[in-house]
Design a protein that fits this description.
heterodimer; A: Rossmann fold; eight-stranded mixed beta sheet; B: 580 residues; alpha/beta; Pyruvate-ferredoxin Oxidoreductase, domain 3; 4 domains; 23 strands; 38% helix; globular
Chain lengths: 284, 580
């Protein structure tokens, strides 16, 4: 069985000291290893941002795409070869600003992809601008008077868009996060793991302590099969952020509803010389 | 009396079944053993506006719509008013007396003008008012002295394909009969044009988009992700209709960016994949287009041009996007850009596109336009040539080095590095849009950057040596050489024939592969030619500019048209006649 080390490339991460990515990276590798997935069986599609620079650090089929587009690339990979374990990995700017359209439609389509979003509420690679998940009033170099927009709510958006697995984790709790990612990968269908994360360099508001104060773990009394309960947990007005699986349900995945790939993945179907005679006849 | 050579045109507002009647007539003439070429003009509307459909019919090969028009069916007043200048002096105009009028003396003396109550006749025969278009087909048959049975067969075929009940078929036949009888009763003198069915040689009739879709299936394309945009959409429709039979997956996604990204993902995972769009859609795709170049993923994109910029004229034709497509996306990377000019080329070059994309692991652009994409033409099946499939260099587990790391971006002589598909043990790497080293790790050192750019461009040099050279068609000692690209082919070929009767010898160079460009070949053509005219459907002469950039040479003339309409052969003929 592969270990965490087998998913580790020779490239050393370049994140800042104390970056939340140092929690997400091992949690993801641990989840893959513990599920018995081999490096060559996994594809991780990254967007652009600090988190996506992690594309270099994983030893698997890594795909460093462009800003906001990790999901559509991942869906193309999955439809071509649905036997692969496919993850998309983005940040909050990448996934919830540039890539929001793809995110909403991926929830609707329910392709069997696990979507990990590193949500540090800040554009950090571009040196500290407000992000879609920044709290209203966040002062940055581009919003010196404070940001005007209300923060985007990823978990609530996923729920109302039809996602079949919605979870929220914290970069500071690796065992808990690894467990969430494992369950997300095991889930058949689109799974979102929104990962609350510190940015020690640019986000001086949502610090490690801030998250400790504002998060709580969903306990055994919480029923993740209850959609209305999930919506309530996702939209609490007291500023408390739930950690755990908010919602999980079963629905046929996008890929399993395409008859052409019911049996054999597209990539393994031999290219036969197509018989076009019947098609030609229809034009006579 | 002229037999089996005429152009027919029907016009009315959207919702009048103009496209449907035109398609039925074109197919009927095809089955009558004649050569047909059709051309439709319509606004971006579902109801209202002005739609026309013309069918050029001949017992000799026809490559483009022919003007003047010999038969005009005017189902509304606009059709009466707008097309007078297109008519032959001895044309016939059948106009809809329920809806339009023609003042006395409006047309020349030679024109046969018959008012036909198309809608009354439709209703009287038990059909709906909308069957006015079928009444018009019946009237056409009587005018041209065609036996009505051929029309009945097409009505059967058309409405059966649309899964209409027998009662609809019967009332439409009655409507056709009503139009047929009306003209037989009211045609006072014989019309100068007739048609006579020949034996049916089983030719096909289709549009460029159909030929591209069939070529894609033949090439083993397994994946298309797209977002509807006129005039590219019917490629997607055609492939979706064939998807289950040929085990290919067609997905409509949320936008053009997702369309190209999913196609890139599928191509990376190892299936032949494509996306199709028009100019505005491709604008959205351009960043990912460059990504495909940088990470070296095979990708085929079809861009069916319409007039721009912005919304422009969405249902009209033009060749305005060449310069954009030759440069689209930031940065420099090898791209292959090709432009088929007719159905045979659409079918064959689509297969070439898939081979080249995989051989050189780089994006390939197939350019068409609304005119080529959606005009239907006759085609012999023997004209569709098949190309053996070449999947390029894909490394399996057994091909990978032992004891050392697999180098995804290995510096090879021709720049092509064997790629591994996800799922291959030991072939893990980063498909890296960041600049990278051979092992695919991000690397921004000056030396690696330059080496990797050179590697990618070695593929371009290899492709340049691989793509077929253009062919100078026609008289090698011509008075003038016409250079064109894409859909102007048919009109140019017809113009060359017309010029012969004016004692002008013209030959023709179609640039099918625009990038890589056949520099030396084109230089040699310039050297030998007496005069050179570049023909393009744009304002600025984008191919002429590209030729100049590639060869330093400029043509003597640029013949340009940018009004949303394709070239008609007589326009090229008269322009060249005046130039020489």
């Amino acid at each position: 069985m592969a270990t965490e080390k087998d998913f580790t490339s020779t490239y050393k991460p370049t994140w800042c000291p104390g970056c939340g990515n140092y929690g997400i990276y091992p949690a993801t590798k641990r989840a893959l290893a513990e599920l018995g997935i081999k490096p060559h069986e996994a594809v991780m599609v990254f967007g652009i941002g600090c988190s996506s620079n992690g594309a270099n650090c994983y030893k698997l089929y890594s795909f460093h795409s462009i800003h906001g587009r990790s999901l559509p690339v991942a869906i193309g990979v999955k439809l071509a070869n649905h036997e692969l374990t496919v993850l998309a990995d983005s940040g909050d700017g990448d996934g919830y600003s540039e890539g929001t359209n793809h995110f909403v439609h991926a929830c609707r389509g329910n392709a069997d992809i696990t979507y990990l979003v590193h949500d540090n509420r800040m554009y950090s690679l571009t040196q500290g601008q407000t992000s879609p998940t920044s709290l209203k009033g966040t002062k940055t170099v581009t919003t010196p008077a404070g940001s005007i927009n209300e923060p985007f709510n990823p978990v609530a958006t996923a729920l109302v868009s039809g996602a079949t697995f919605v979870a929220q984790g914290f970069s500071g709790d690796i065992p808990h996060l690894a467990d969430l990612i494992k369950k997300a990968i095991q889930h058949r269908g689109f799974s979102l793991v929104n990962i609350l994360q510190v940015c020690t360099t640019y986000n001086k508001v949502n610090t490690f302590d801030w998250y400790k104060q504002h998060t709580y773990k969903l306990d055994a009394t919480y029923n993740p099969a209850d959609f209305n309960g999930a919506l309530l947990a996702a939209t609490r007005t007291d500023g408390k952020l739930p950690l755990g699986i908010l919602y999980q349900t079963k629905r046929p995945t996008y890929d399993e509803q395409i008859p052409q790939i019911k049996v054999e993945p597209l990539v393994r179907q031999p290219i036969k010389v197509a018989d076009l005679e019947p098609a030609f006849d229809s034009y006579r | 009396m002229i037999q089996n050579n005429f152009s027919w045109k029907i016009g009315g507002e959207a919702g009048y079944g103009i496209l449907s009647a035109g398609a039925m007539f074109a197919r009927a003439m095809l089955r009558a053993g004649l050569y047909v070429f059709d051309y439709a003009e319509y606004p971006s509307l579902i109801r209202g506006g002005h739609n026309t459909f013309e069918v050029s019919v001949s017992d000799r090969k026809v490559f483009a719509p022919r003007r003047p028009i010999q038969v005009l069916i005017a189902l509304n007043q606009d059709t009466v008013n707008l097309h007078t200048h297109e008519l032959a002096p001895d044309a016939a105009v059948l106009y809809n007396t329920n809806n339009a009028s023609v003042p006395g003396g409006y047309y020349g003396d030679g024109v046969t003008v018959i008012g036909v109550p198309f809608e009354d006749l439709a209703l009287a025969s038990g059909a709906e008012r909308v069957a006015r278009n079928v009444v018009a087909l019946g009237a056409t048959y009587a005018l041209l002295k065609l036996p009505i049975e051929g029309l009945f067969a097409i009505i059967e075929l058309n409405f059966t394909l649309k899964k209409k009940p027998q009662a609809i078929i019967d009332t439409n036949k009655a409507a056709a009969r009503a139009g047929f009888d009306f003209i037989n009763k009211n045609l006072s003198k014989p019309f100068n044009y007739t048609a006579k069915p020949l034996s049916n040689p089983e030719r096909m009739i289709m549009a460029g988009n159909n030929a591209i879709a069939l070529g894609a299936i033949k090439a083993g394309c397994k994946f298309l992700s797209g977002y509807p945009m006129t005039p590219a959409t019917s490629i997607m429709n055609t492939l979706a209709g064939q998807a289950q039979k040929h085990n290919l997956v067609v997905v409509q996604v949320e936008d053009e960016i997702a369309a190209i990204c999913a196609a890139i993902g599928a191509g990376y995972a190892g299936v032949r994949s494509m996306t199709v769009t028009s100019g505005g859609g491709f604008d959205l795709m351009t960043e990912a287009w460059g990504m495909a170049g940088q990470i070296e993923v095979p990708l085929v994109v079809v861009e069916a041009m319409r007039t721009g910029p912005s919304t422009g004229m969405p249902t009209w034709s033009g060749q305005d996007d060449l310069a954009m497509l030759l440069a689209a996306s930031h940065g420099e990377f090898p791209r292959i850009v090709m432009a088929p000019g007719d159905l045979e080329q659409c079918y064959f070059m689509t297969q070439e596109a898939f081979n080249l994309a995989e051989k050189y692991q780089t994006p390939v652009m197939v350019i068409t336009d609304k005119y080529l994409a959606s005009s239907h033409s006759w085609i012999e099946q023997s004209g569709f040539k098949d190309l053996p499939i070449d999947r390029g260099r894909v490394a399996a587990e057994k091909d990978l080095p032992v004891g050392t790391a697999y180098k995804r971006y290995l510096h090879t002589k021709d720049g092509v590095s064997p790629r591994t598909l996800p799922g291959t043990p030991g072939g893990e790497h980063i498909a890296n849009s960041d600049e990278h080293d051979e092992e695919s790790f991000s690397d921004e050192t000056a030396e690696e950057r330059a080496k990797m750019v050179d590697k990618r461009f070695r593929k371009f040099d290899a492709a340049a040596a691989d793509v077929p050279l253009p062919v100078l068609e026609g008289d090698s000692n011509a008075d003038i050489t016409i250079i064109g690209w894409g859909s102007t082919r048919g009109a140019i070929l017809e113009a060359i024939e017309q010029l012969k009767s004016h004692r002008i010898r013209a030959n023709y160079l179609q640039i099918k592969y625009i990038s890589p460009f056949p520099v030396e070949y084109v230089k040699s053509v310039f050297k030998k030619a007496k005069k050179i005219a570049v023909v393009e459907n744009n304002k600025t002469g984008q191919l002429a500019a590209w030729i100049r950039e590639q060869t330093g040479l400029a043509p003597d003339y640029k013949i340009l048209k940018y009004d949303g309409r394709p070239f008609f052969s007589d326009e090229i003929t008269s322009t060249i006649k005046n130039l020489l």
